Amino acid sequence: MLGEPIRVGTRTVRNRIVFPAHLTNAAVQNRPSAQHAAYYAARAAGGVGLIIVEEQALDRPYEKAVLGTDPAVVPGYRAITDAVHAHGAVVLAQVGHNGAQSSSLYSREPVEAPSPVPDPMFREVPVALDAAGIAEVVRGFATVARHCVAGGFDGVEIQGSQASLVRQFLSPLTNHRTDRYADGVVFLREVLTAVRAELGDRVLGVRLQGDEGLDGGLTAADAARVAVRIADLVDVVNTAVGVATATLPLIEPPMGVPAGYAEPVPDAVRAALAGTGVPVIGVGRYTTSEQARRALETGACDLVGVVRGQIADPAFAAKALAGERVRRCIGCNQECIAAVGLNRWLGCLVNPDAGRESVAVPVARSRRRVLVVGGGPAGLAAAAEAAERGHDVHLVERSDRLGGQLALAAAAPERRELAHAVADLAHRCRDAGVWISLRTEVRDAHQAGPGGSEPAWRHPRGEGPDHPDVVIVATGARPDPPSGTIDVTDVLAGTASPSGRVLVVDDLGGPAAPSVAELLAQRGSHVRLVTSGMVAAEGLGPVLERERWRRRVAALGVELLTDRVLLDGALLHHPSGRWEPLDADAVVHAGPRMPAEIDLAGTRVGDVLAPRDAAAAIREGTDAARAV
Q1: What is the CATH number of domain 6-341?
Q2: What are the extents of the domains in the chain?
Q3: Could you point out which of 11, 16, 388, 396 has its C-alpha 20 to 30 Å from the C-alpha of 266?
């Protein structure tokens, strides 16, 4: 069923897989860029049936929004649609107005909404739209639709979900009007009618909010009710959960949230639209072909939306339809959600090409003999990429397993999906013919083994030992904990098992200390997490993990101590200057690591160059291999 074509309005979509709208921050001067065209073309070439390009905005809610009301966007639209159509996919543009979920910082004009209800994130009190203002907004939707037609899109999708003026009209939490627009469907129908007049026979879709995740907010039943009332105007209904400010983790949930978590919404909408011929798109953190196929087979939706899965693997659709292994999104949210939220371009931890599809990849020169030292994420990425480019590769790892710190981190609660990244890199290496040696140390570029007596490079086809042409050093970093403390990696590796009263000191701000604190609390220890920051687990905020983590550790009784520094065997509360005793049976420390000491010439990548994160390691390993 996943590969079956489906009729959407006047267009036939070749399969049931959709690449829904999401922000990329790739706009240049608020217009589509060459990166947009390359980004969407890569997914079209990867076999997806329907692409919905990110929001084309009426307002200017953020710096890098594409302003669809500007006629200058049309050439960029044409570049996107030509690139996507060349690979056989149908492409729509999402059109939206963010209403109160916006800032006046860029427009220097007050934000607008149905009622003067401030958004909890932006906190600006909006101007309540009067009849003339509403009419102007409706004309704005029509203008953007007209530009989309000129740009070659197969149609448009009206944004009525996460960050949307339409949603604000539909929700009782944000619409306190007493005129006819108190019924938000009246506004939505006016928008749809105006847009339909511009589209002609092209596709008109709408994305409806199904569960705001807020008391008194919209529910799946509301989405179903609205869908029935607009079924005569639309060709397809897309669905969503969560609000892009108040309940953002519902929209882009982190690892640990199961696939299909949002299925009650498309299921309710599809049931309500039965007999109308209007198909329904469902979303819900689908990262494998089996999960996407199950959503269709259970009847939850007619088409299945896969965003992060196709960011991680642009060929997700083709592989899913062929029954092949896909490169899995691990829900880390580091380079996609967090990056875009910090006004950077979109990226991906497991796919270093995401967000830079428009950058040309150098062609491999002659076939080379490549020695990769270290089997962590940087080394695995380098070995896989080099072998896939036709080089003969030997990867040497001194421990008895691959993955380095990434594999170790997967032992922590709610972090097991990190192991998928390691497994996928290892599969790439093996499929490409990388010769892998575990429990092997490299003394120099030519000798490996305990005494340096074995050749470090041997032809993968068994043609005998030889010297490497290229050496890539990816030996990682080592812990550097304060005296008298236990490093978090020793807890995860099982070489240390602190118990009783345990103080976990977070000098990193990332997931390491919070994860180990939760792990030790699960084992029965009384845990206090200490940080010098104003909030605990601050690094989990941008990746949308902090809310779920706070709930879990609160249930486990973990104490969170902020504004404190471990210094000279005591805690200094730096705002007051007060000293506090450690009062602990063991102190576990998460802090900066130091590059591993290795006297080996070669290109250094990942933590041995400068300790950072797995995304940097995989990107640098890939780039080093491409430079061979």
Answers
A1: 3.20.20.70
A2: 6-341, 369-477+600-626, 486-590
A3: 11
